Amino acid sequence: MALFYIYILLLFMVIAAIIAVETKDLLSAVICVGAIGFGGSLMFLFLRAPDIAITQIVVEVLGLIILIRATIARDLTFITGDREFFGTVVSVVILLVIVVAGIRVFNTMPEFGVPVFARIPETASQVYISRGLADTGATNVVTSVYLDYRAYDTLGEATVLFTAVIGATAILRSKSRKRLEESEA
C-alpha cells in the first residue's frame, strides 16, 4: 500500500515540475517547486526516513521564504475574474484531500502511549535496541546508532552542513578578492 502512495507522490511531483517549468508566472513556479519539495519530504516519510523528511521540510521552508520574497519583490500579479473562481475550487479540493488523508492517518494510529514501532518487530529501532550491543560493542545505544549503523548518513549530513557554511561564507563575505586586489593597486 505504501508503494501506491509513493507512485501517487511521484506523479504529483512530476506534474508540479511540468507546471513549474511551463508557467509564465514566477510566483506560481516557486509554489510548484515548493510542492515538489514537500512531496519529496512526504516520500521520505513513506520510506521510513523521518530524519531526512524533517531536514527536507526545514530546507524547503527556508528556500520557499527566500524565493517567494524575491519573486514578490520582482513580479506583482493579481488574479481576477474566472481564474479566481478556478483557483478557489482547486484550493478547496486540495484542502479536502488533505483533510481526508489526515483523518485516514489519524484512524490508523495506535492508542496513546503505545509506541508505533513496537508493533512491528523488524523495524530499525527494534533491531538497534535488541542487537545494538552485540553488533557494535557499544554500551550506549545512541552511540551505536550514530557511529556504526548510520555512519555514512552522519558523514553525509556533516558534509552538507560544512558545504552550506562554506557557501554562505563565500557569498556573504564583505570584501571579495577582486575588490581587495583593486584597492591595493
Radius of gyration: 23 Å
Anisotropy-based shape: flat
Helix count from the secondary structure assignment = 8
Helix content: over 70%
Task: Write structural notes for this entry.
It is a single chain. This protein is an all-alpha fold. Helices cover 79% and strands 0% of the residues. The protein has eight helices and no strands. It has helices at residues 2-22, 26-46, 50-74, 82-108, 124-136, 141-149, 151-172, 177-184. Helix 1 runs antiparallel to helix 2 (26-46), helix 2 runs antiparallel to helix 3 and helix 5 packs across helix 6 (141-149). The protein is flat. The protein starts with a helix and ends with a helix. The mean pLDDT is 78.
Q: Key terms for this structure?
A:
mainly alpha; 185 residues; flat
Detail the topology: elements first, then pairings.
Blueprint: H1 2-22, H2 26-46, H3 50-74, H4 82-108, H5 124-136, H6 141-149, H7 151-172, H8 177-184
Q: Briefly, what is this?
A:
The protein has eight helices and no strands. It is mainly α and 185 residues long.
